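Dear Dr. L.,

I hope this message finds you well. Following up on our conversation about the binding site, I have prepared a predicted three-dimensional model of the protein together with magnesium ion. For your records, I am including the exact sequence and ligand specification that went into the calculation, followed by the structure tokens. Please feel free to forward this to your student if that is useful.
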Amino acid sequence: MTLSAKAPLLELRNLTKTYGTGETAMQVLKGVNLTLPKGEMIALVGASGSGKSTLLNIIGTLLRPTSGAFTMLGQDLFTASDATLTEFRNRHIGFVFQFHNLLPDFTALENVVFPTAVRDGFERTSARRRGRDLLDLVGLGDRVDFRTTELSGGQKQRVAVARALMNKPELILADEPTGNLDTKSAQQVMDLIKAVNKSENATFLISTHDERIAGQCSSRVEIGDGHISW
Amino acid sequence: MRYGLKVALRHLTSNPSQTGLLVFGVAVAVFIFIFMSALIGGLADLMVNRTLGGQAHITVKAADRPLPLLATDPGIEVLLARQTSVRDDTGIQNATPLLPVIDGLPGVTVSSAQITGGAVLIRGERLRQVSVTGLSPDRVTAIIPFDQYLQAGRSSLTGDRVMIGATLAEELHLSVGAPITLRTDQGNLAALRVSGIYATGVGGLDSAAAFLDIKTARSLFNIPNAVSRIELKLTDLYEAEAVARRIVATTGLDAEPWTQTAQQLYEGLKAQSDTGLILKLFALITIVIGVASSLMLTTYRRRPEIGIMRAMGASQGFILFVFVSQGAIIGLIGGVFGAAMGLAILTPLTPKGDVAAGQLPIDVAQGSIGLAILLTMLGATLASILPARFAARIDPVEAIGQ
Ligand SMILES: Nc1ncnc2c1ncn2[C@@H]1O[C@H](COP(=O)(O)OP(=O)(O)OP(=O)(O)O)[C@@H](O)[C@H]1O
Ligand SMILES: [Mg+2]
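The resulting structure of the complex is given below.
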């Protein structure tokens, strides 16, 4: 790997997140320090309720941290406006969620193309071409025009992976991407992520409490008691 | 924002029963709007035609000069004075050059210069007091559509011809062609011949009026040059006050619109149109509430999707646009559908000629169809703003609910 590929993609310094205020306030992240290099496939492990989703949502710019420093690709995201974050998210971050991943009234291809189309204002032919290629890549070339309600759970997650790649983001966040799948489908999705991580040079941060999933990643971050350990 | 429209349309088409029901509801409200417009408009026309059919929309008379001061000397006291008008009995002087001016005013369809006076019709032993109107022979039907009311004879007034009402004809045993003597209040006598007998349904016109050639009337009432009044019909009845003001300003004469002469009718029409307005407003409110509540439900149901779209980089503005578009599209389709319904149902219900008993005086041409579609689209769009703002502010983390 080249040096620049190892330059940090993301830096969190002393990051905290407190839910609620006053007596009901609960500090979930108590000063997280984290530097993510490019091109890796990192597992984020921790017990249920340890704050994995909270951390992923903050990194995904969907949730505001309470204090600390948060920079990605050299840009300060702690103070950035909502509009800036939306734009940043669209260009630089892909998501694979556990549930509610796809838009049910749209076809597989339309879902994959969404991140580009919403930016361009319409579905360009070039975007559709890339969408088809990505569906081919995830092994769903024959399901392009299927409504997402006509796909199996594993197929849906593979469409979600294809969509996460659409805008060639530097970072893809996957919050328990296989949590909802049987072992066989889960392994298929993991194989896909591993392949894509190599072929597209996409950085993955995958939260899981499944050791078999975590073991397949190139590195591992543990979260517990509001802190992070490598 | 083509893509926003695509998403909006997909939302609408993916739930055909909900969208269909909503569009149908909007269409029904639009239909009610159009129905009310057509009914109120038709009803107003009917009332105006029934009551105002034989009346002028504006009556122009000589100006009333200010009353003279009676007691100018402080030493003199006025004991009794009763004079309400100093209007010139001889009518409008030099009317001849004025007529083309009045005819040329925008909104005036036809004018009718008239000589009026009191007279007695004499037939053998019988006498009847009548009010006489002298009309220009080429404008006999300008104000009162005698052709529609004629029972016998023709509406022609040249020379010694006279037209009288059916009640009067019966009382005096007159038929078309019968000779009759007329004596004016000034004592002038004329031998006339009945050319037509009409029945307008208006008591005074049918029992105590006579119409003759304006030339005959001039000599009978000793008015060689002036005219007593000029009556006008307008293209738009409801412009009467404005046109009357313009006539006063340009000619210096007195111009009375029908809204003053037939004030009760005017107020009745106004109350009726106000009622219609309120009902139409309710129809619009129904649309707004229906669209707003339906879209509110939709946005709530689509919360996870909205969260996903936001996570994929859709801006708040995009989400807002998607849901406002849905309101606008529903308004447009519901409006057009309701308008089509209005045309289809109300066109056959619009009476062709006279309104028969038991028939609604609907006039589909007054259905304000364009306005109905426009207001519906506007209302539905406004109605969608609240749910759309709600949608745009949904917290993606909560909505995706990881
Ligand atoms: N919106 C919220 N308001 C208040 N508390 C919250 C909120 N979201 C999460 N929490 C709390 O923060 C803690 C961490 O939650 P989080 O969802 O990040 O954990 P997790 O590691 O993803 O758990 P799991 O493995 O079960 O998904 C939990 O105790 C949770 O109850
Ligand atoms: Mg979680």
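In brief: The two ends of chain A are 21 Å apart (CA to CA).

With kind regards,
A. P.
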